[in-house]
Every structure is written in C-alpha cells, then in structure tokens.
Amino acid sequence: MYVYLYDNFLNHRKYTATIKTIENRLTDYGIAGKILHLNNYIDVKPIIEDEIRRGAKTVVIVGNDLTFGHVLSRGSTCDAVFGFLPIGPNNTVAEVLGIPVGVGSSDILARRRKEKLDVGWFNNRYFVSQLHVPPAKVRVVYDERFQVTTPYKMEVVVCNFQPFFWKKDKKDLEDRVVHPQDGKLEAFLRPYVKKGWWGRESEDPSVFPFEEMEIIGSGPFVVEADGKKTKEVKVKIRLARNKIDMIVGKERRF
Amino acid sequence: MIFKKNPSQEDYYEENEEMMPEEEAGVEELSEDNIDTVVGPSMIVEGDFASEGNIVVKGTVTGSVCTSRNLTVEEGARILANVKAGSANISGEVRGNIKIKDYLELTATAKIIGDVEAKTIAVEAGALIYGKVTMPGVEKSELRAAKAMRGRNKRGSKMLDMDDIDDAED
Q1: pLDDT for B65-99, tens place per residue?
Q2: Residues contacting B92, CB < 8 A, separation 6+
Q3: Distance from CA of B124 to the nearest CA of A (A)
Q4: Which of A50, A160, B103, B161 has a CA 20 to 30 Å removed from the CA of A218?
Q5: E strand or H helix at A110, and its extent?
Q6: Pairing of strands B98-100, B116-117
Q7: In CATH, what number does A125-239 get?
Q8: Residue A36 contacts residue A6 (beta carbons within 8 Å)
Q9: How far apart are CA A191 and CA A196, in angstroms?
Q10: Where are the domains of chain B?
Q11: Which residues of A are less than 8 Å from B6 in CB distance?
C-alpha cells in the first residue's frame, strides 16, 4: 500500500494540473494510495509509523528539496520504502537520485528500483540533504585524530544528497558544483579571508572525506540541516550506513 | 555520496507491490577512492593527518602525514611533519623525514629539511635538500665496500699530509 505525503506549497493552483496528471498516471499503474497533506506544524514520524501499522509499505514524498529533507530527517528510522515525486522549483536532490521533476517521476516510482542510502547523523538528529554552518569562528576535529583551524571565520558544508554550489568570486559567472561522491561523507571548508581594509572574500574550499567529525565553536554558531536552523556550541557528525530504502532512477549519480 | 550498491543487483522491474525479499548481505564494495583531500592555503592541520586517497596540501600541516596514494605539496605550502606516501610531488617546504614507496618528484621551489627515502627520485634544478637520501637497490655489501673505500681514502690523505710536513721541515 502506498501513502503520499504532499507538501503545503502544492495547494497553490499552478501545481493543480501537474498533480492531477501524476495522480491519473499513478492510478493507471495501480499504485495510487492514501494522500496526506503536511504542514510545518505536523510531526512526520508518528504519521508514518501510524500508516505503517495500518499496512503501508511505501511512503512517497511529494514536493521539493525542503520536503524531502523534512520528511526523511524524521522518518529515516521508520521501516518503509521511500519514494519521491519532485514537483516545482528547488529540486536538486531529484537529479542526484535520477528522478525527473514533474510527471516523469511517476514512471520511476512505478519501476520501483531500490537502493539503500546512508544518512548523516548529528547531535541526536539525522540529516539527509546537507548540513551547513554559515561563516563562524569554529574549528573542526576529524575522527579524533587531527584538527583543522584557520585564523579567519570558516564556512562548513557537509553534503549528503544535495550538491555543493559555490562561486570563486563575484565576477565568476559559472556556478561551480561539487557532486557528492559514493561511499563517503564529505566536508567542504571555506575560510573567509580578509581582503583590503573592509572586504572579505572566500577562498577555494578545502575538502575532507570523513566518517566522524566534530565542529567546535568559540561561541554559539548557527547550524542549518535540511532547512531547519538551530544554534549549537558543539556538533558531532557521523555517518549512518544503509538507513533508508529509497526508490531511485536509472540516471542516478551513484 | 554515501550509497551502498550491491554489486550483484541489476536493474529490475517489479510488477506487484510486494517488496523484494531481503537479499543476502554481499561484501560491502566501496567505490574506488577517487576523493582528493585538499588542504586550502589558509588552513592549518594539526595531528595525525591520514587519508586513503590523494592529498593536496596548499596550507600548513603539523604532526604527521600519511597516505597510500599521491601527495602533492604546492608552492607556498608547509609540512612540519614526517611524511609517508605512495608517491609525492613536492613544490613547497617539508621539515621532517620523507618516506615514499614509489616516485618522488621535487620541483625547483621544493625545500626539504630531513631525511628522504624513495624508490625513484627526480630533482629539478633549484630544489633544496638538507638531509640523508636513501634509495633501495643498493646492496649491503656495496655499502660496506663504499665505507671501507672512504676509510682508506681518509687514511691515505692523512699520510700524504704527514709527508708534506716532513718535506717542509727538510
């Protein structure tokens, strides 16, 4: 049995036609199911667990990158197969998973090609897409073996599914992309170097693949994981292997 | 980036909704380690810095550096540590002992203060080395013979000096 979790923004009428087409296709494939609408105040985990108790085998996320991160960061411990139907803008994760945005995603869902995916874990929470620490005075300790520091403020990005985009400088027209690699959790560190009297510019990022990492700040710093912001003084990040059973496409980047 | 791929699993289609039975856990096959570890120009790494892939150092590293693959030290980079690598390409400064399994290349801006051990060494004009250089392939017997030769040459030169003094006195 399939359960579909629709994000709030899909209520807008510009998505009505796309959703209708997708729903018709899913019915033709014989994989239509129960539809539940999410909002910011609903905790996803008890909902998924309830549906699994009622017999649901597959939970399908319908929305964008934020929806994907919001559902999987809470629902990754649930015993179900997850699918994804990306609709609308802000869909970078879908490309990594090999799922086309829009109506074509229902074909991928019907094919049911499964892969076991790893997730990141930090401070008793899971994150699926990306963990981002905006420029702050922090130091990073890797695998309790070595530490990385810089005299300047440093931006830290730990990528999982969501690729890391960055620009070399203001004049750089091309968006540089670093795609996540298979089998590793990677951290990108960018110090903000002083330039001239007032300005600051970011350096080319340093790359460190790792299994376990600790970010320690001299004071509280903002941590953004899957769209949710918190303030922490210390963050421990670890890799959790084979946490999610996910339906993916043939054109996936792994 | 952290995806496990069962090598025996091929693309397949499911006609019904039932989940496939759990496959036996195969040997975890990690993809080839193509990930480069990059240390940026203003980064300072302290501790036992080890990696399974290639390492590119543009900043400062203290402690020890270890990789089974290639180590690149760019111009302006500093390593204040002992280094162990499969192969290395050094254009910066290294203060510590270097042990390379295969090929070591020192460019014109390289500065090494410490002992060097490598199978093959290429040194560009302008590179600075201050330390002992050891390469495998020299037999122990040849080493002993070379030492003995050095000893004889020293004694020989001492005797010549004594003769010069005697001649001068005469």
Answers
A1: 999 999 999 999 999 989 999 999 999 999 999 99
A2: B57, B73, B74, B75, B76, B77, B78, B79, B109, B110, B111
A3: 28
A4: A160
A5: helix A105-111
A6: parallel
A7: 2.60.200.40
A8: yes
A9: 16
A10: 37-134, 138-170
A11: 116
CA-CA distance, B85 to A198, in Å (whole number)? 41
**Of the partner residues B1, B5, B50, the one whose CB lies closest to the CB of residue A181:** B1
The CATH code belonging to domain A2-112 is: 3.40.50.10330
pTM of the full structure: 0.71
Q: Which of A27, A182, A204, A242 to mutate to test the interface with B (most CBs of B within 10 A)?
A: A182
Say yes or no for a CB contact (<8 Å) between A209 and B41: no
List % helix, strand, coil for chain B (3-state, nearest 5).
Answer: 20, 40, 45
Please count the residues of chain A: 254
Bridge-based pairing state of the strands A2-6 and A34-37 = parallel
ipTM confidence: 0.71
Q: Point out the residue among B1, B44, B45 whose CB comes nearest to the CB of A186.
A: B1
Which of A115, A148, A242 is facing B45, going by the closest CB pair?
A148
